[in-house]
Amino acid sequence: MIVGHNYLQEIRAFCRDDEAYRRMLKFLTGFSSDGDEQQLTAQQSRDHYTAILNLLPDRVFRVNRNGDSLDFKGTQEDTDHGMRREDIVGTNLRECLPSNIAQAILSAIAQTLETGMLQTIEYQLPKAWEPNIGELRDYEVRLVVCGEDEVLAIERDITDRKQSEEALRRSEARNAAFLNAIPDLMFRIQGDGTYLDARASATSDLAISPAEMIGKSIYDVLPADIAQQRMYYVEQAIQTGHPQLFEYQFPVNGVLRDYEARIVVSGTNEVLAIMR
């Protein structure tokens, strides 16, 4: 395990010159000057350095504007599969990557050097040691200036995150389809009676559209007696955590209609109200 001064030496060895070292140190720790380096060495504990190292489980490249790899630090998985620094250093992005991905990275490198600002891009590739298996992995690369005409590129495998995001998107789509199939009126209501969301079928008899209700108070939308009754059950649901069930009558086109309402807590200081 590399800690303390040895950790700083590794950063310095990875960087081409003092300016690149200062940029790298600032990027990783927030410290930039020699005085800050001494402060870092004196003030930070073994746990601090270990934490910094744990923040870098990723591949790190030093690349110039032309896409030449000047230095490389792989992951533990790279090492386990025999991927060595000397296999990468001296190669060009155009030799190692599909043309569209190489061009996207080169454009991001140019943008980083021109603006001096962090750039982030994403792409899909098979694992370097399993190029023929066919499983694509999602990667994110962050680029920062690391010297004259050079950038530091930190590549992270974000496949698990992408899969989680896709699973969430599908779940939300299923839930939306399920809700759309329910003919009942549904409202999300804040503890003070403000409508946070509203959903109604195309054949509902609401006097105003669901979109118009959002942001309004129950007292702005309903007759006073019904509003007061509904607020009572909203408060009861929030205070007790138990579902509330009640019935009420509401005039629609001059005719009283009977409704049943169910109210359940759906979040901090809010409820879901279902009317039928």
Automatic annotation (TrEMBL):
<dbReference type="InterPro" id="IPR000014">
    <property type="entry name" value="PAS"/>
</dbReference>
<protein>
    <submittedName>
        <fullName>PAS domain S-box protein</fullName>
    </submittedName>
</protein>
<feature type="domain" description="PAS">
    <location>
        <begin position="171"/>
        <end position="241"/>
    </location>
</feature>
<dbReference type="InterPro" id="IPR035965">
    <property type="entry name" value="PAS-like_dom_sf"/>
</dbReference>
<dbReference type="Pfam" id="PF08448">
    <property type="entry name" value="PAS_4"/>
</dbReference>
<dbReference type="InterPro" id="IPR013656">
    <property type="entry name" value="PAS_4"/>
</dbReference>
